[in-house]
Design a protein that fits this description.
This protein is of the alpha/beta class. It has helices at about 5-10, 25-35, 65-70, 85-95, 115-125, 145-155, 170-175, 175-185, 200-210, 230-245, 260-275, 290-300, 315-330, 350-360, 365-370, 385, 390-400, 405-415, 430-440, 465-480, 485-490, 490-544; strands spanning about 45-50, 55, 80, 105-110, 130-135, 160-165, 190-195, 220, 250-255, 275-280, 305-310, 335, 375-380, 445-450, 455-460.
Length: about 550
């Protein structure tokens, strides 16, 4: 193939026979729509040798023309390159791609060194590029090819927001210098960094953390499928960075990293206090000891974790009890993903009881108030059979009525409120107690969705009259528990008298209501008896 510059393609675009420069009618149609500026064409384009690609490259495809038409499109934002031949054709394609003004995302995989190098050089002209994915090219790309990536990142032409390097062993073995210097070039703009399955160990993790110092706006860090089984020092360094960096990470993905108890101990504090989503899926070396370290971290008032993934960790009763201790004082975790219990990992009723106590500790009113009122989703296989009705109710209450949760739990768990412990505050506490009951009135009308059902149920099976009676009883006991204080205070005495009168009035009203009900029942019975006699009489007439 002769070398053609961009001007050649510009001069001949209108007259070129598309069937002559493509290997199939499908490819010719794509080029025609590109040439004609069809705004209904998909915003993403994949090219490779497999049939599923939008452009299936075969013998007869002129990649220079393909690159030219792609570069002219105003609509494309995504380009997936899954194959690029060596030589002039690949270079012609890359040179034309460098002219694009619309491509913002590039995905590269399975390229050889020549194709990879030419694409990296072309990307240096795409100032609008925001996302670059390089997947599994390490077997065919030599250090010179990776240095082209370094040059691209250091150039600061591309202000990448997403850099996804997946399945590239070179990164963990020899390429950390490339990564470190490259991240300094894009650190201020980078939001998402994926380094999954990149053969990163302890030394590599230390180097990665050093490189992250410039990434002040990072929101997602994916280090999954690397081996951190001996990386306690590196994980400790990651924890320190999280605590000291001028940013707060939203997502930290450490799935399948062989993290053990020692590693989790080093990591837990920084990860819990500075990440919203923490993914520890598949780290099956973590035991109850490690879960205790995690529990201590999430119990902290500074914990930011909202979603916690623990699938694949062998959580049994001891582990669940450890987690429950942390969740009892936690105010941030909303979703907890646990193991598939069908994998032979069991949590018995004892473990679930500890979890239930974290949601609603009934040992005292104060303990109930301080229970977990935040978590609302526990995702687990067959949870309809495993999670008790009480746990489901508390989770749904946390989810649907967070502003009323604590008061509802107190009313559910303490039918008789012991007011004696409040006497130390004297009568000055009385208005606060009255106000608490006023704020709790809505609890009598709240409903929540029934577990595994579309129906709804009331949170409290208590009538408004019953609630008012409970309030008056509590206030009466409170006032009567400190007679001398009441006698010292005319207003306090008035309050006591007022409650006496109110209780008497309600009792009288209840008495009248019962009498009216009995009278109506008697009238109803008499009417039923009369109808029976009349029915018998009419039946006799019909027979005659």
């Amino acid at each position: 193939m002769e070398h053609r510059n961009y001007d050649y393609y510009e001069a001949n675009a209108a007259s070129i026979n598309l069937e002559e420069i493509t290997s199939s009618a499908k490819n010719a149609k794509i080029l025609r729509r590109l040439r004609d500026g069809d705004d209904k064409l998909r915003r993403c384009l994949n090219l490779g040798r497999e049939e599923w690609n939008d452009v299936c490259i075969g013998e007869g495809d002129d990649l220079g023309w393909l690159g030219y038409f792609i570069s002219r499109s105003e609509y494309f934002s995504y380009l997936g390159i899954h194959y690029l031949p060596d030589g002039e054709e690949g270079h012609a394609f890359s040179e034309c791609i460098a002219r694009s003004q619309s491509i913002r995302e590039i995905h590269i995989d399975n390229l050889n060194n020549d194709g990879f190098t030419s694409i990296m050089r072309a990307l240096g002209s795409l100032s609008q590029l925001e996302e670059l994915t390089i997947w599994g090219v390490n077997n065919d790309v030599d250090p010179d090819g990776w240095n082209e990536l370094r040059t691209l990142l250091e150039s600061e032409v591309c202000k990448l927001k997403h850099l996804l390097l997946r399945g590239n062993n070179y990164i963990g073995n020899e390429g950390l210098d490339v990564l470190s210097s490259g991240l300094r070039g894009i650190g201020s703009s980078l939001k998402v960094l994926h380094l999954s399955d990149s053969s990163i160990g302890n030394e590599g993790l230390l180097a990665v953390v050093e490189a992250l110092q410039s990434c002040t706006g990072l929101e997602t860090l994916d280090l999954s499928s690397n081996d951190f089984s001996s990386a306690a020092v590196g994980l400790g360094s990651l924890s320190d960075w999280l605590q000291n960096a001028p940013m707060n990470l939203k997502n930290l993905d450490l799935e399948g990293c062989s993290i053990n108890d020692e590693g989790l101990h080093a990591l837990a504090e920084g990860a819990a206090n500075h990440c919203k989503v923490l993914d520890l899926i598949g780290n099956d070396s973590i035991t109850t000891l490690g879960l205790r370290y995690l529990s201590d971290a999430i119990r902290s008032d500074s914990c930011r974790v909202e979603t916690l993934h623990l699938q694949g960790i062998p959580i049994r009763d001891d582990g669940m009890e450890a987690l429950a201790l942390g969740l009892a004082g936690n105010k941030s975790v909303r979703s907890l993903y646990l193991v598939d219990l069908d994998d032979g990992i069991t949590v018995s009723s004892a473990g679930w009881l500890a979890f239930s106590r974290a949601l609603c500790d009934t040992s005292s009113v104060n303990s109930t108030y301080l229970s977990n009122n935040t978590i609302c989703d526990v995702c687990i296989e067959d949870d309809g059979e495993i999670i008790s009705r009480d746990i489901s109710r508390f989770l749904q209450l946390n989810k649907e009525h967070p502003q009323h949760t604590a008061r509802c739990k107190i009313l559910l768990s303490h039918k008789h409120l012991d007011m004696e412990s409040l006497h130390q505050w004297g009568l000055k506490f009385l208005p606060l107690a009255v106000a608490w009951f006023e704020r709790s009135k809505p609890c009598t009308t709240l409903t929540i969705e029934e577990a595994n059902s579309a129906s709804r149920r009331r949170v409290l099976e208590e009538s408004c009259e019953g609630f008012e009676s409970r309030e008056l009883t509590a206030m009466y006991e409170f006032v009567r528990g400190m007679p001398m204080e009441v006698m010292k205070s005319r207003s306090g005495l008035a309050v006591a008298v007022a409650y006496d009168e109110k209780i008497a009035r309600i009792e009288e009203e209840n008495k009248i209501a019962l009498e009216q009900r009995d009278r109506k029942n008697l009238e109803l019975e008499e009417e039923i008896a009369r109808l029976k006699i009349e029915n018998k009489r009419l039946s006799g007439i019909v027979e005659v």
